[in-house]
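Minutes, project check-in
Item: structure for the 127-residue chain
Input as provided by the requester:
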Amino acid sequence: QVQLVESGGGSVQPGGSLRLSCAPSERTLSNYDMGWFRQAPGKDREFVAATRRSSGSPNYASSVRGRFTISRDNAKSTAYLQMNNLKPEDTAVYYCAATESRMILSSTTRADQYSYWGQGTQVTVSS
């Protein structure tokens, strides 16, 4: 069973930045399409961003577009979520997700398309 190891969460003031990392325990990152989701207390898990192993463009939720950047370093077998200009409404547990299937762009927003999930990392934005 593939495990996704996340790191990089924490507490930050509004306007601050954090970078989340995610690495699969088996096989290299180049074998996976990757996504990030988040879940705030009392809310459903929601899509944040996704990157596919193909050369296609990344996909972002409208709420984070222009502030968050998803990237992947296949040599380090690690995916990243750079989060800038953080807002209190970004407070949530963030999960990375992966699938060995090749997704079309529209499918990357669907949690049920991912086979593997990280343990989650807390991001808190508060003054």
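Outcome recorded: The two ends are 40 Å apart (CA to CA).
No further action items on this chain.
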